[in-house]
Specification:
mainly alpha, MetI-like fold, 2 domains, about 0% strand, globular
């Protein structure tokens, strides 16, 4: 009998796994497919009708999109904006990653720390800071230029080049992390062979290093391009005033016009158009990543990447890197200065005498801000926790499950990566417009769980792949249920990756403006939407104070947690 006892336990585990698979599939399908079906239905609505009001189908919205005289301008602006941001961002990120990972330049850790912590800075705050810096009339840099030269300032925030410049700074940290991994994991044997055979540093870089990096750099470029095409915050802040429309802002303006009635049908049709474009580029990204597998040269043997000695170029490299880091910090510095004033003033000794915490007291004393802070806490904790729990179940069943259900879970959980956030926000708005969820914090949580589930699932899946399947099987045979296996075996082994994923979702949920702005009501305002409202009034010191508080709050959570993870991981090795 003792030999037969594991069989019932295994059957019980298989039964729990089967039920769990179907339950997870139903949840993921509901949050991903439901909004998209509503988006498609809305795009086929007759003019002036709302979803679920009629069963009629009309292709008039798609005809209007394809015959819109502004469509070529929208496509050209979107493409130029994305390509310019990618070109500048990836070149700078590549140079910084090479200095930080492959040279002996002092201060490399500082560059890495800045890049990782910079991910906690919302793009909307970057936009605020750069407007104060290079606004044509009162921008600090233009005013200083006029004081020094007597001529007009050379900078302007209201141009597509300014949008490209600012956006490139927002994508550099992500590109840096991805490209840094390419440099860090490159086996130096081929480079060493080039040097042994008499190749100079330039020849080795051109003939060996660059060809090996090209597939990885191309995949990073496509990934960043997709992210910029989907971007909404900076085109909203800078592009609307500069009258530079892109696809994401056109979708927002159609669904949330300043005057008139929302045109949900046309907005949904533009959303479908943007979704198709993003899906095509996502397919190209996976083809490039797949082709890049042929260029892998990291072996199972231990290796140490070749470190270049800069010698006489050390000081110039440090100077350029330091100036670039200062340039990244300038928007935060100017917002910090503005937050200590009751009214916006240019930096001066006279203004320095009026520096105080009065703006912070005034802003934090507002009931709307207090409610937004509470909503933000609920949003980030709820979204990050629910996302990671669902991602853990999704990754487990997609890897450990079998059949079409496991495959369907995997595909559905990854599909939001190809869905632009503005399109998903639009779809969620249409789906829940006439339900009690509309106007609540819960609808914001659902939106963030939907758009971040792809990243979270991949984070957990990469950790689960490293676990031997026999660990869970042995526990199941011994009578442990699914949740016992998950909580007693799996989570203790993958908690660093899970915590990193939780922090990533928390930070991005706090900094996101797209979903909260499109789904905003008086009851579910969060800090990002209140910042936007104060800026739009305009109450520049109030918006700056909230921006500083949001960045500091994120840093106080993320930095200690990262230090804790690093120390715990070091002890376990």
């Amino acid at each position: 009998m003792a030999l037969d006892s594991p069989a019932p336990a295994r059957r019980q585990g298989d039964g729990q796994r089967s039920i769990g698979q179907y339950l997870v599939l139903a949840i993921v399908a509901a949050i991903v497919i439901g909004p998209l079906l509503m988006l498609v239905r809305t795009s086929l609505l007759p003019e002036g009708r709302l979803p679920l009001e009629t069963l009629e189908i009309s292709f008039e919205n798609f005809r209007a999109v394809l015959t819109d005289p502004d469509l070529p301008v929208l496509l050209a602006n979107t493409a130029f904006y994305a390509l310019g941001s990618v070109a500048i961002g990836t070149v700078i990120a590549t140079a910084l990653a090479w200095l930080a990972e492959r040279t002996d330049m002092p201060g490399r850790f500082g560059i890495r720390l800045l890049m990782f912590t910079w991910m906690a800075v919302p793009p909307v705050i970057l936009g605020f800071g750069w407007i104060l810096l290079i606004n044509p009339g009162s921008g600090i840099l233009n005013v200083f230029w006029r004081a020094l030269t007597g001529g007009d300032g050379p900078f302007t925030i209201y141009s597509i080049w300014a949008m490209i410049f600012i956006t490139s700074f927002s994508v550099i940290p992500t590109a840096f992390v991805m490209i840094g991994g390419l440099f860090r994991n490159m086996d130096p044997q081929l480079e060493n062979s080039g040097y042994v055979h008499g190749g100079s540093a330039g020849v080795v870089a051109r003939r060996i290093t660059l060809p090996l990096l090209t597939p990885g750099l191309l995949s990073v470029g496509i990934y960043v391009f997709i992210a910029v095409v989907q971007a909404f915050e900076l085109p909203l802040i800078v592009g609307l005033t500069a009258r530079i429309p892109v696809l994401s802002t056109r979708i927002y303006l159609l669904s949330s016009p300043d005057v008139g009635v929302p045109n949900y049908g046309l907005s949904a049709a533009f959303g479908i158009f943007l979704l198709v474009l993003a899906t095509l580029f996502m397919g190209l990204y996976f083809r490039v990543v797949g082709a890049g597998e042929r260029y892998r040269i990291v072996s199972g043997k231990g290796f140490r990447p070749r470190q270049t000695k800069l010698k006489r170029w050390t000081f110039p490299a440090m100077l350029v890197s330091g100036l670039f880091c200062l340039l990244m910090l300038l928007p935060i510095i100017v917002l910090l200065w503005t937050s200590f004033l009751r009214f916006y003033e240019l930096p001066s000794l006279a203004a320095l005498e009026r520096v105080s915490f009065a703006t912070y007291r005034e802003v934090l004393g507002r009931s709307a801000v207090q409610g937004a802070i509470g909503n933000t806490v609920l949003l980030v904790l709820g979204a990050s926790t629910i996302t990671m729990v669902l991602a853990s179940l999704t990754a487990w069943y997609s890897l450990r499950g079998s059949g079409w259900v496991a495959r369907a879970i995997d595909v559905l959980s990854f599909s939001p990566l190809a869905i632009p956030p503005i399109v998903m926000a639009m779809a969620i708005l249409l789906l829940y417009l006439r339900t009690p969820l509309y106007g609540s914090v819960l609808i914001l949580i659902i939106g963030h769980v939907t758009i971040y589930i792809a990243f979270a699932t991949r984070t957990i899946a990469s950790a689960l792949i490293q676990l031997n399947k026999e660990l869970a099987d042995a526990a199941t045979i011994s009578g442990a249920g699914f949740f016992t296996v998950l909580t007693r075996i799996v989570i203790p082994l993958i908690w660093p990756q899970a915590l990193n994923g939780w922090l990533w979702v928390l930070a991005h949920s706090a900094r996101d403006l797209t979903i909260p702005l499109l789904l905003m009501t008086n009851a579910n305002a969060v800090m990002s939407t209140v910042m936007w409202t104060l800026w739009d009034v305009p109450n520049l010191p109030g918006a700056a104070a909230l921006s500083v508080l949001l960045v500091l709050s994120l840093l106080l959570v993320i930095v200690p947690a990262q230090i804790f993870i690093a120390r715990a991981s070091a002890k376990s090795q």
